[in-house]
Design goal:
The structure is a single chain. By secondary structure, this protein is mostly helical. The longest helix has 23 residues.
Length: 642
Amino acid sequence: NFTNFKTQAARTGGNNISLILTKAGNLDANHSGGTVAAQGTANYMTLSDMVNKSRTCTTGPVTAGVITGSGYNRLRKATLALAARLPTAAEEAAVNSAGTADAAITTAINTQLDSIMTNESAFYTRVKEIYNDMLLTDYYNVNTRALAELDKSNFTNADFFEDASLTPNYAIPADRDALRRNANYGVAKAPLELVAHVVRNNRPFTEIVTADYVMVNSYSAAIFGASIADFTFVNGNAVTLRDPTVFREARLTDMSNRAYEHTGILSTLPFLGRYPSTATNRNRARTRYTFLYFLDTDIQGLADRSGLDFNNVIGTVPTLTDPQCTVCHNVMDPVAGLYKNYSNSGTFQGNRPNPSQVLAPGYTMIDLLPAGESATALQFLGRRIAADNRFAVATVKTLLRGLLGPVAAQDTVLVEQLKTRFVSSNYNFKSLVKDVVASEMFKAVNLGTGENPAAYATIGSPVVSTPEQLDRKVSAITGGYQWRSPSNNALTGDTFRILYGGIDSMDVIVRTQEPTSAMASLQERIAYQTACRQVPADLARATGRILFPNVAATDLPDNVTGADRIKQNIVYLHKRILGEELAIDDPEITRTYDLFVAVRNSNATVTNLPAECGSAADTNRTIRPWMAVVSYLMMDYKFLFE
């Protein structure tokens, strides 16, 4: 209880006063329980004293004994996390020229981040991945699942991409299938594309819950009857005419000529379909996830449900009268009522009356929906969420979980610091990204000698890379190689993505945070196979080598010149693969060099490579040792963890 109290005491309301005091004194005039301890009263002052004392116990992570990375370390971590690549030479030079002062390094890195977040699509791919980990709407981004499962019955063109419509103009089944996949992509990706659209255009991030439009691609625009000149797909267009990954804003009208009640993510078909309702649930499940995702509030955690006494239920409608129920339902049910204009499956139904035997729709039991806004009840909800202090907190935690793992999001002090800056930036998501990258959490690389790790529980980011991140990292260090299994399955495909701790957004919805035996086996396979394929190919290049710019296959450890070149390239590989900037006489370089020599000596009579590695001649017996070095580094903790 004290831990929970400290957490809430460290948070602030819209008036920058502790959330505990804000609610108790009803200082924001939105506490559904009204004023419990009026400001200035003895009870309020006692509570205020408790808040102040608890804050002295909530100092955030201890950082005095933390070693932060160099400018290059920080830049490399940022470009891999946000741009799926290593830093360019120009970026590295710009950061190195900033010197060693933390503020100067941060400024230099921010300049590079501004360019990445403006110009590189990989950044938006990463943002969408982070938000899908929360929303789970990519469940529908599989073949034609969105077209088959989402209810589009209130749109005249719902069957636009059915065989009966397409066959006259597209006789080849593969063409019809391609068009349907493009349309499915447009429908399924609408929530995540909205997030990317808001970030890309530097709009206040609150727009993800207030946008009066939906994102469509050329194909989903046709389904929804959104006629956008030179964009909307027309039956008869060439199959490849429109790029399905390009999205635009659209405002829809349904088949009953009703203007759609657009409310950002909240009104999108994938969100409403992913969290459906029933006749008895009455939008409470949708409300639960609305609170969880956008207001950092777990409604199911508001009260202990283990001691419910169903033999002593009070009233004929317990959700209205029994304190065992009202403790949660008084918070949840008014908001559930704001979804009244949508069916259980997610179709827009126009202005609908509030169901009987439920609380009146509103943001709280006090902040009720005005009668004149009944037709736009969900938009009322979107505006209230956007104005709620908890929206900023939820956004900060979502980004922290995505970039630094779940432990980072539990650091209340860090969250509050980032939230304050986020709100001050007018909810600029890119500014928030830069603040996270500049945080001690992101910069930490090690602890000082003799430090107790238990004192730094939330510092650093010992989170195993997601399958998508590892796939991109392998490609980054090798210059474009994508690992595939012997049966040609990618790490991001259905099979290996789940084995490596990923999600499918339906049955598997939480990423694995600790390595499993299956993941360890995959790590070995990826390292060995990447080395097998890429080392011989890279050494065979006359120029432009990615992994071996400082050495050739003819350089041997048997002479001083060859040994020096080998060590120089090992220094290069440690930097490229692990981000380590080491001197040539560093013990780590010596260990790796000794591995090279040992492998070469153990294969004194083997001068050919296995068939799967290209069957090339290894006359100098140096290719196998280099394969061992690359696989050894790729199995290092620093490569596999973020």
